[in-house]
Every structure is written in structure tokens, then in C-alpha cells.
């Protein structure tokens, strides 16, 4: 049997697969990596994947668990579990260990590296601003994996744009020394570059690039329009997004659900929630079925306008329409609700409905309760995080510590501050705890 420490890190929907003993400490913050107590049981790939995700803020434990299930439970890792572990290592800049895993994958016929493996690696290199290293992987390493192709090229460009290295992406695609690869869908590349300027928040450059696409004769597609409508919304000009929507209609461009989601948000901002609801009904009448993002957009507009009863009705409608609410759905409510009891009831409903909170969910709620001066709900959320097996990050610790200091509980705040530092997480300098920036905490 596995220890009780392990099960808190497993996907709650899978925990019934394992029989657990309870003779281990209940707190997972000081516990060691789980060890088998008797005959190991077989685990499925999905359970292992979600268990690794629970360790995403503690790469050493994640790697210990990764190796342990393979050696002690005879688990055969899949490409998906390898990719998740590589992603966690990359988050903490452990790229040598990531490459060690990739070499192990090469020797495993059931877990060969694929495009996702290197998309993860590109993402982590570029998130760490190691652009040259990411490009070098594409140029020098992918050939040996037979993965140096258009898909990998687009993954590299997309990662550069996602993490605000759009200038490098533009140079890679259109620079003088461009000898990379011939891309069949050039519009796709331009869309990624446009989205990259959007990520930078350089609205003038976005407009300039949009016009440049016309001058170059780039055939704009639905995704081009969807991206630019979102740019107009984010830059504070939702009425221009509505104008673009009308232009699309006049050109006979059939909108998909992604475009409608942007239009609903734009009209909600420029004309109000009632007009947004009209477009929502229009898309359904035209046979375009809403998805969870559509419902979240409408729910957010309703919540922000104080129409909570209608927002709850939308939540019920989602369930009836077999549209599964996600964590963003509940965030719409959490941001606007003003009663701790109502928030905690909805939080419990969220978990009971199988929606797993993200770390930013816990942080949002703890900060909100702490700001209001309610300490008990802060600990309710913290305890729930522990039960569900989520390893707190620096933002979660800081939210708890700030709430404790606000209530004058300095000794307890210091305890969590020290615990945070012992895990290698950066702490804020605080006068109340006599910590200084120069001391690293």
C-alpha cells in the first residue's frame, strides 16, 4: 500500500484505486517522498500524470516520485508522463536533467519523444529567456529525433511569441539570414507574430503589423480577425472590435465559436451585457454551439454587472447543456462575491463537481479573505489545498503570511516564512519579521 502522503497528491477521481494506510504524518510539507509499505500496486498513466502535477512546485519530489513509481511500482512511463516531468524540471531551469529524461525516452519504445516533448522544452527555454538555446535545439538536435519539420518550427515560433520574444520570432521567420523551413500556411506564421505583439501589449505595433499584412497580400483568415478583435478589446477599443465583426459579416466570413467569444466580450464592454446576450442567442440560433469559454464570458459580464442570479442560472444551464464548467467559471463568481460564507459554499460545490482548483484559485481566495480581515476562511482554503495535494507556491505562502501579520500573529507568520525559505521559494522582505532583501528573505 502507498502512504497517505501520496494519495493527497493523486487526482481525487483516481484515489479510489488505491488502499491507503494512515500511519504517516498528516502534513505533507515536511514529509518525505512516499515509500511502499508492502506490495506495490499498478497505477494508470492519468493518475501518475496528475500526481506529478501536484508536485509542480517541488521538482525534487516530483522527480523522486517519477523514479519511484517506475522502480517500485513497475510503472511503465508514457510519453505524456515524461513530458510532464520535463515541463516541471524546465520550470526550475533543470535543463540537464530534462535532457537526461529525453535520452531515457529514446531507449523506451513506449515513450519516444514527440513534438509535444520539444514544444515543452522550447517553452521552458524561452520562458527562461534562453532564446539561443531554444533555437539551437531546433537547429542542431531535432534532426536526430526525426522531428525537424514544420510542426516543430511553428512550435518554436509560437513559444517565442507566447513569452514576449516576438522580435526574435520575426527575425527567425523573416530575417536576412532566414534559411529555416518553407511553411505551407504563411498566414499561420503571421497570425502567431500578430499574437506576439498582442502579448507584448504594443498596440501601435499591432495595428502597424495588421496593416502590413494587407500590404504584403497576406490572406487573413478567421483566426487573424479573432486575434485582432481581441487586440482591440484589450487596448480599450471594444467598439472597433464590434466594427470589425460587422466587416466580417459583410465579407461573408462565417464565425466560429472562438470568434463569437471575442465578439460577445467586445459587445459586452462597449454596449452592455444585454447586447452581449443578444449575440449569444444569435450564435445559438445560427447553429454555432457555445463552449465553456462562451459561457464564462457571459458569466463574467453578468457577475461584473451585479446580476448574480442570472449568473447562477448560466451555471445551471451549462450543466444541463453538458458544458462542463471549469476553474475560470468559478473565478468569475469568486471575484465578485462579497460574503465569505457564500464563497466557501461555492468553493465546496466546485470541488464536489470535480473541478480542481488551480494555485491561483487558492491565492485569490486567501488574499480576498485576508484583505477583509477574515483569518478562519484563509485556513479553510489552505487546509483544502493540503487535502487536495497541491504544493503551495510563493504566492500562496505570501498570501497566508500577509493575513497572519495583519492579525498580529507574527510568530506563526515567521514559521511559514521559514518553511517557505526551506523549500527554496523566494520570500518578500517584511519589517514585521525582521527580514531584509539583502538577506534573501
From TrEMBL:
Signal peptide: none annotated. The keyword Glycoprotein does not apply. One of its GO terms (cellular component) is mitochondrion. PPR repeats lie at residues 221-255, 256-290, 291-325, 393-427. It comes from the Eukaryota. The keyword Repeat applies. Pfam families: PPR, PPR_2. GO terms for molecular function: mRNA binding. InterPro entries: PPR_rpt, TPR-like_helical_dom_sf. Keywords: Repeat. Belongs to the PPR family. P subfamily. This is Pentatricopeptide repeat-containing protein. It comes from Dovyalis caffra. The lineage of its organism: Eukaryota, Viridiplantae, Streptophyta, Embryophyta, Tracheophyta.
